[in-house]
Amino acid sequence: MRYQGSQPDIERWYNNTARRFLKRPTVTLLTRSGRSRPTPQRYGSSQAEIDSIVTNELNGIRFSAKPTYNPRIRTEGKTTAAVISGIPGAKILKIEIGKQRRPGKEELIDTLIHEELEARIIIRAHSGRSRKFTEMFTQGDRSIHLYIDRVIARYIQSLRRKGVLP
Ligand SMILES: [Zn+2]
Fold this sequence. Notes:
Strand order of the largest sheet: 1-3-4-2
Helix content: 40-55%
Bound molecules: zinc ion
Shape: elongated
Number of strands: 4
Radius of gyration: 20 Å
Strand content: 15-25%
Mean pLDDT: 89
Distance between the termini: 70 Å
Number of domains: 1
Low-confidence stretches: none
């Protein structure tokens, strides 16, 4: 007796039986980019600098994916997630940090928080449990960035109060 179906068995079962009832789920990749207005001058960073900020200035934040430096992306940051049709939830695959519009740590901190918030908005918008976030995500960039900028401003203020930032 065989207890486990092989891949062809499962395919056959799907085609003969389940297809009539189940739509084959599809995986969609979602990407959210940081502000993409092109600027003539862009400032590079490094993985070491990003790692240092994540473990020091931003040690209060648990990132949904490890922020990775990628100078080839055309925006300051980029978050990639996967969602499966018909199933609530989203998986954050990548948080990439690109070159910045301004030099210095504060711009990087802003971008790191920005991308983590993009990730959390994707997760909440697809959780099936938050009308507010689902609506915000559907409305798109303007509405998402209004929210993100407000949260970042509050967070930067609290870092200043604690003396983490000047
Ligand atoms: Zn954004």
